[in-house]
Write a structure and sequence with these properties.
Elements (H helix, E strand, L loop, with lengths): L2 H5 L9 H4 L6 H6 L1 H4 L9 H28 L6 H35 L1
């Protein structure tokens, strides 16, 4: 008896429907996400636009850390230390993710350019 017959067929188990969502991915559903799939003119977005938007979000996370840290220093009663820690972790994670994505893009571009 093989391991596949013991395990059975793979199946996604949703522990909480709110986490995975319940809507089916149809064309109408995807066209409703205009901020992701369409540009401002209604045309499909450019990769450059997505990249700039993502880097702006990473920069916003870094600025949020600076803002919360300044607020902690100037008025410690108005900010919880956990909020500062969470903001720092979020900023670090987004920066690491952006760095990995950019590194993969450069590696992929180099592979494409050398294979031509």
């Amino acid at each position: 008896m093989s391991a596949l017959t013991i395990i059975g067929t793979p199946e996604m188990i949703r522990t909480n429907p709110a986490h995975a969502g319940t809507a089916k991915l149809t064309e109408n559903f995807l066209s409703g996400a205009s901020s992701v799939s369409k540009g401002q003119s209604g045309e499909p977005g450019k990769f450059e636009t997505y990249l700039v938007k993502a880097l702006d979000e990473v920069n916003g996370n870094q600025l949020e850390v600076n803002r919360v840290t300044e607020q902690l220093i100037t008025d410690p009663d108005s900010v919880d230390v956990h909020d500062v820690t969470t903001a720092m972790a979020k900023a670090q994670l987004s920066l690491n993710l952006a760095q990995n994505v950019l590194d993969r893009l450069v590696t992929g571009w180099n592979e494409i350019s050398t294979n031509r």
